[in-house]
């Protein structure tokens, strides 16, 4: 097969591993910098071009699109879908997962356990929305944040109010969430491929840190999932419409709650912690799925 990886940098661990795994299984791989792609939307034969060359003949496309380039990346991916190339994750699902609030709304509609979450637009409503999620301590999150940046623990009502008012004053979109203290600064990353959890790890924040992000000094270790956690992860990926997903769970005293569903989950932490060849499993999934024109939406949405 001829596989395109949409990535800005072929040296990134995840991109490198996907190239390696695909080549090992006898496929031809090309890494494409999405920001250097241009397209003809007007013509009836949709195409993607790269430095004067038409990108044709691909069987599958693996999007590895960073949060900061979601808009253009999703447009390029959609164009490949319109050309009948099989996307490992579709553009619609990618866009859905990049909007934290929309994701939580979709998951809650299907009864997935979530931290109680509130959202408000005006400082006048701050007191009420904090009350709504059970009062301090609460976690306040910037909707546009990644890697734990813009995630704040407010221990008291007063602190919560002033942080929320501060963010609102900067015109930032935020949500406020019950603080799952019993998670003890740890979360669980479940790596889902094709409706199965293929690997999982526990990430523990550095001492004194409630955020477990590896980028914030957290450490990863192998974890055994309960059947409930496994099915929550699989259902969450399915609700989001993602074939490949990183589902982040917190262990709360009301069961596993989903914090986030990531559509371009990194391979480095999970492969090291679990010892699994996750890249190979993704390529195997593509081999079983990629048929020309098998794009569920054909670029709609
Ligand atoms: P990001 O997408 O920026 O990583 P997250 O929402 O995943 O933001 O939050 C970062 C980290 O903060 C999580 O990995 C988790 O350890 C911690 N955290 C987030 N929300 C909560 C919460 N409601 N209760 C307890 N810890 C939380």
| CATH fold title of the largest domain | D-amino Acid Aminotransferase, Chain A, domain 1
The SSE order reads EHEEEEEHEHHEHEEHEEEEHEEHH
Distance between the termini: 27 Å
What is the helix content?
A: 25-40%
**Low-pLDDT segments, ≥5 res:** none
CATH superfamily of the largest domain: ATP-grasp fold, B domain
Overall tally of domains: 3
% residues in beta strands = 25-35%
Shape: globular
CATH class of the largest domain: Alpha Beta
The helix/strand class is: alpha+beta
Query: Main beta sheet: strand number and arrangement?
Result: 5 strands, antiparallel
Summed over residues and divided by their number, the pLDDT gives a mean of 93
Summarize this, please?
The protein is α+β, with helices and mostly antiparallel strands and 301 residues long.
What does this structure look like?
There is one protein chain. The chain has a five-stranded antiparallel beta sheet, sandwiched between helices. It has a four-stranded parallel beta sheet with strand order 2-1-6-7, sandwiched between helices. Strands 8-11-9-10 form a four-stranded antiparallel beta sheet, covered by helices on one side. Helix 1 crosses helix 9 and helix 2 packs antiparallel against helix 3. It has helices at 13-24, 70-82, 91-98, 100-109, 126-132, 157-169, 227-240, 268-274, 278-289, and strands at 2-6, 28-32, 37-40, 47-50, 53-54, 60-63, 86-87, 117-118, 138-142, 151-154, 174-178, 186-193, 196-204, 219-222, 244-252, 255-262. Strand 4 and strand 5 (53-54) form a beta hairpin. The longest helix is centred in the C-terminal third of the chain and has 14 residues, at 227-240. It has 301 residues and is of the alpha+beta class. It is globular, with a radius of gyration of 20 Å. The chain binds adenosine-5'-diphosphate. Residues 115, 139, 141, 145-148, 151, 177, 179-180, 183, 187, 205, 210-213, 248, 250, 259-260 line the site of adenosine-5'-diphosphate.
């Amino acid at each position: 097969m001829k596989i395109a990886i949409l990535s800005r940098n072929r040296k990134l661990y995840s991109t490198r591993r996907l190239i390696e795994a695909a080549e090992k299984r006898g496929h031809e791989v090309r890494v494409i910098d999405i920001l250097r792609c241009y397209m003809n939307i007007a013509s009836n034969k949709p195409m993607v071009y790269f430095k004067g060359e038409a990108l044709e003949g691909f069987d599958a496309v693996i999007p590895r699109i960073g949060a900061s380039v979601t808009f253009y990346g999703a447009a390029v991916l959609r164009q490949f879908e319109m050309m009948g190339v099989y996307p490992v994750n579709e553009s619609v699902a990618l866009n859905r997962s990049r909007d934290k609030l929309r994701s939580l709304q979709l998951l809650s509609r299907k009864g997935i356990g979530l931290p109680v979450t509130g959202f408000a637009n005006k400082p006048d409503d701050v007191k009420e929305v904090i009350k709504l999620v059970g009062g301090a301590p609460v976690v306040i999150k910037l909707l546009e944040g990644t890697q734990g940046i813009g995630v704040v623990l407010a221990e008291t009502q007063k602190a919560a109010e002033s942080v929320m008012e501060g963010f609102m004053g900067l015109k930032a979109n935020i949500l406020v969430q019950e603080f799952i203290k019993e998670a003890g600064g740890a979360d669980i990353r479940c790596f889902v491929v094709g409706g199965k959890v293929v690997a999982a790890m526990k990430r523990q924040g550095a001492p004194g840190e409630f955020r477990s992000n590896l980028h914030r000094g957290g450490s990863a270790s192998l974890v055994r999932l309960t059947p409930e956690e496994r099915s929550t992860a699989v259902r969450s990926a399915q609700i989001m419409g993602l074939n490949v997903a990183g589902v982040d769970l917190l262990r709360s005293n009301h069961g596993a709650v989903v914090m986030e569903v990531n559509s371009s989950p990194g391979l480095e932490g999970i492969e090291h912690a679990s010892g699994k060849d996750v890249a190979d499993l993704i390529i195997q999934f593509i081999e079983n799925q990629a048929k020309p024109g098998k794009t569920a939406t054909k670029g709609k949405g």
